[in-house]
Each structure stands twice: as C-alpha cells, then as structure tokens.
Amino acid sequence: LSEILDSLESPTTLIDCSTIDVEDARKAHKLCKEAGHSFLDAPVSGGVAGAEAGSLTAMIGGDRSVIDRCSTVLEVLFDNVIFCGDAGNGQAAKLCNNMLLAVSMIGVSESFILGEKLGLSASTLFDVLSTSTGSCWSVNRYCPVADVGPKSPADNDFKPGFSAKMMLKDMNLAQKAASESDTATPLGTHAQSLYQDYVNQQGGAEDFSGISRFLRSGIRNDSQN
User: Fold this and answer.
1) What would the pLDDT profile of 36-73 be if each residue is shown by its tens digit?
2) Domain around 118
3) What CATH code is carried by the domain that includes residue 71?
4) Would you say the pTM of this structure is higher than 0.85?
5) Does residue 154 share a domain with residue 49?
6) Residues with catalytic annotation?
C-alpha cells in the first residue's frame, strides 16, 4: 500500500473490495489519511453469480462523506451499497456474514444427510426446508445437493464458485477477530475446524458447499469423535 500511495500525485480515494483482516483495513485507512488520500474498505458478497448478474452487495466502512462523494461509482459497481460505519466496519460485516454462511451451509448439509438416512428424498426435503422455518440462502439459492433447487455447484461436481480454501481464509479471519474482541463463537469455531479438515484432506479447490460431500463421507477429526 505504501508503494501505491507514493505513486499518487493528487488526493485519491482507494476502494478495497477484497476481504482482509479488520485491523489491517483500519491501518490502511490510517496510512491513506496520513498521505492525504481517502480509503474505503468495501468487501462484497454475492459470489460469481452475483457478479455476473450485477447483483453484488458491498459492505462499506469509512468516512461517510467519502462514500457520498463516491456514490455514483459505487452504484454502478454494486446493486446494494450498505454503509457499515467507521474504518474497518465493512470488513467486520463481511466476516460476520461469511461466518454465518459457513455455519448455515454445514447445518443444511447435515439436514440433507440426516433426511436421506431417515428415508426422505432430497427433493421432498428441499420443498419442506425452502418453505419452512429452516429456509435460508444455503437452501434456497445454493443448495449443496444436486438436482434440487436452482442450479448450484452441487450440479457441477462442486466446481467453484467460492472455493473451500477461500471460505477457510475468511473463517480464520473471523476467528482472529473473535479472539481479539474476546467474543465466544462456538459454532463459528467448530465450522472453522470442519473447513480446515475439509481443505487439508481435499485440497480446498472445490466449492465451499462441497463440505456436504465431505460430511457425507463420514470423515471426522479427533474433535468430533
């Protein structure tokens, strides 16, 4: 970042759409401000499908006046622009979102595995979950079971989308933030452990929803025995 800042001659606004550590984002804001520039942390959600459809959501942290000044550009790039507060809060929101996504994908996967064991067809269980209190994005839009619901990576041998390795990266960042803020996240911690096992054993190139196939295989680490 310092090298980039050194090359800028006039006041510039940098918009970072990657997902990084919350404290690193806050340091980037500080460095930019000290150099006479502006910075917005603006991680996005929506995946490849959202990017192709132009329906991405941006979670933005930074000075509100800077966001207002950049509104025309932001509205072109993103379908939903959500101001999350001060420096680093965009990253904080993204990590909270992806921690929940990991937990929900595991829960949805386990529900389909249990349903199958109990004699339910995947299509019947999808109809129940998608119209009942278990309804969520991991069921309705990204079901980890082939041939039910809208087309998803499960219909394409779990080719990514959003890879398991990237999900693990975000889970590690979320757990780091939880530790630094003294926040207990038992389900988040367990989800991180499962994704770590999944990546260790499968390499992490598959879509993160492939955790369903991993769980179906019955592989468990010591913490689950």
Assistant:
1) 999 999 999 998 888 888 899 999 999 999 999 999 99
2) 93-220
3) 3.40.50.720
4) yes
5) no
6) 94
